[in-house]
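Thought: the user wants the 3D structure for the chain below. I'll pass the sequence to the structure tool as-is, report back what it returns, then summarize two notable features.
Action: structure_tool
Action Input:
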Amino acid sequence: MVRSATAIVAAAMPAFIEAGRELVRLGADGLTTGCGFLSVYQRELATALDVPVATSSLMQIPLIERMLPDGVRVGILTVSAETLTADHLTGAGVDPSTPVAGTEAGKEFSRVLLNDVTACAGEGLDARACLDAIRPTSRADIPFTTALSPTGD
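Observation:
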């Protein structure tokens, strides 16, 4: 049985909270994560940890969009456009109509994300081209995962 990323993250929340509390006990005065799927739990983590928490790079989107000219949007690059839901976007304060492109059609990235990220270099650029086709007014991109470099570097 294959579990969804959301189900896996939900099951791991107690561990995330305990690890966050330990980091705070050790002196951390703010926490970030590299897993954008945690955006659904932004409020829960921020409340439980008593320090500033940023669960996802998606949280940058409202700020970046305020810096762009009228009519220009931020685009999201992700491993799976289908898996990135409106709940993830709203959890990060992002308009659910924000354009999203995934690497599902790529040769390697989605397949080997957890095994050999170096085999995937450049597929972020392919997803960016897809994003251009979806929304030509997109000029700023936010990778949904820290494993996805939009430049291929």
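Final Answer: Structure generated. Helices lie at 5-25, 42-49, 61-67, 86-91, 109-112, 123-134. Residues 58-143 form one domain.
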